[in-house]
Amino acid sequence: MKSIGVFDSGVGGLTVVKELIRQLPHENIVYFGDTARVPYGIKSKETVVRFSIENILFLLKHDIKLICVACNTVSSVALPVIKNHFKVPIVGVISAGVREAVYATQNKRIGVIGTKGTIRSRTYELEIKELDPRVKVTAVACPLFVPFVEEGWLSGDVVLTVARTYLKPLKQAGVDTVILGCTHYPLLKPVIKEVLGKNVTLIDSAQQVAIEVKKILAAEGQLSNVRKARHRFYVSDNPEWFSGLAKRFLGRQIKEAHKVNNV
Ligand code: DGL
Predict the structure, then answer these.
(1) Neighbouring C-alpha atoms within 13 Å toward the C-beta of 260
(2) Of 98, 112, 175, 182, catalytic
(3) In the CATH scheme, what architecture does the domain 3-92+207-259 have?
(4) Which residues face 109 on adjacent strands?
(5) Which of 4, 40, 198, 200 could share a disulfide with 9, CB 3.0–4.6 Å?
(6) Is the CB of 183 under 6 A from ligand 1?
(7) Which of 52, 69, 137, 68 lies closest to 98 in space, CA to CA?
(8) Does 182 participate in catalysis according to the annotation?
(9) How far apart are CA 177 and CA 196, in angstroms?
(10) From the alpha carbon of 118, which atom of ligand 1 is closest?
């Protein structure tokens, strides 16, 4: 039975896997986390494109029917380039989140938060404007959020102070909808909510991309009905570190992560 291939710069893409498993419990999944080369959020476009192509070539060795790019940085800086290189459908996390945000906003003011690479690419902004040119977008990079989540600092004074500083421009702009444009940010939802207030809608791209993957597979008659789906995890370094963090992102322990050397 074919599998859905998912890749990310590291462990964060497991937030997307969590949603895929929730919404598509009968699908086999092969995950690759590029833990040897993480983070991608501060790297150049050329480097992210090269790493992404290598990651896809690795996944394609596993009888893959669709590739889901869980990483927001890859989806925003590299996806348009890499999509043309492969026949297999490749789905990124940007468009689904953008559609949901444009649908959700009442006052036409949307905030976007992500890594430096994601924000610098302006991909979210351009896709939002393409859907609705009247929307005012305020985009802010929040580089400290990734290490906070990986260190398990999901609440407390330090995170709250940093979040208040980063999110100030969004508050000043009066956004009513914010796209969590990074794999790690769904874990900081409570802090972000506390800073922005409960009336601001947070868009979780992980949830949205799982809906999109399901739609594509259904349209292609490729949905699986295996009773016991297999979930396999590969990393380019530090499988123990990955497995240790997996529970936080996936909501459950993984059996094992395999280290691969050929990426
Ligand atoms: N996975 C990345 C993203 O969603 C965050 C971690 C990194 O910078 O590689 O943008």
Answers:
(1) 17
(2) 182
(3) 3-Layer(aba) Sandwich (3.40)
(4) 136
(5) 40
(6) yes
(7) 137
(8) yes
(9) 10
(10) 10
Cα–Cα dist 201/216, whole Å: 26
Report which ligand 1 atom has the smallest distance to the Cα of 115.
10
Question: Which backbone phi and psi does 74 adopt, to 5 degrees?
Answer: -60, -45
Distance, CA of 244 to CA of 262 (rounded, Å): 23
Task: Clarify whether 71 is annotated catalytic.
Answer: yes
Q: Which of 43, 72, 75, 115 to mutate to test the pocket of ligand 1 (most atoms within 8 A of CB)?
A: 115
Q: Which ligand 1 atom is the nearest neighbour of the CA of 117?
A: 10
- Asked, colleague to colleague, whether 3-92+207-259 and 95-205 share their fold, the answer is yes
This prediction has a pTM of: 0.95
pLDDT (tens place) for every residue of the chain, 263 residues total: 899 999 999 999 999 999 999 999 999 999 999 999 999 999 999 999 999 999 999 999 999 999 999 999 999 999 989 998 899 999 999 999 999 999 999 999 999 999 999 999 999 999 999 999 999 999 999 999 999 999 999 999 999 999 999 999 999 999 999 999 999 999 999 999 999 999 999 999 888 899 999 999 999 999 998 889 999 999 999 999 999 999 999 999 999 999 998 66
Domain 95-205 classification at class level: alpha beta
39 lines ligand 1 (CB under 6 A): yes
Q: What is the residue extent of each domain of the chain?
A: 3-92+207-259, 95-205
Does the CB atom of residue 207 touch ligand 1 within 6 A? no
Catalytic one of 49, 71, 167, 246: 71
